[in-house]
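Researcher: If convenient, please comment on what follows.
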Amino acid sequence: MTLSAVIVAAGQSTRVGFDKLLAQIAGRRVIEYSIAAFAAAPCVKEIVLVSRRDRIEDLRSAIGCETKVRALVPGGERRQDSVRAGLEAVSPSADFVAVHDAARPLITTEEIERVFAAARKYGAAVLARPISDTLKTADADQFVSGSIERANVFAMQTPQIFRRHLLIESYERLANQSITVTDEVSAAQMAGARVAIVPASEENMKITFPRDLALAQLILDARERRGT
């Protein structure tokens, strides 16, 4: 069964204050790490990179000579618009599609392979981290109003991998109903799909704030010392 990867790099980087995907960690741009991880995964047959229009030329240089990259396409206003643009560029022969946030540069080939194995078994799977913090709800004045039981509560990460036809049908349903979602798991759930959870390592962090670049550097340094 063939797997295509859609790497979403169409965000605005508003919270970090600069273009985080072009920022450098250990001498490489953030976006290059995600591309390299999926290119190195034996299960991945092709990569589609989705970019903001004003970032396309910069990302073209980040791709370099990577032969698994099938296309570099402009994204849309919302995340789901960008993912749909990527889906349209995926090879029609693909059985499964992995969607990954380019802002998670520390994804590993081992994690990609584990999520794909679960997706082959169940039709849909996501890398996710169990919540360990105590969770509370707040009222409109930002005072604690209640508690959330953290057992079986997970923070969704990427990659999120689905049978191609399931993901296409899920996004068609969203478009027909004018619904906005923040990830592909939500889209698949609305289509009635069950999505298997694959536990993530603590290292699959998302670059959101400037301090995250320094933390990512520390993780990469630790991996180098471990030889992984």
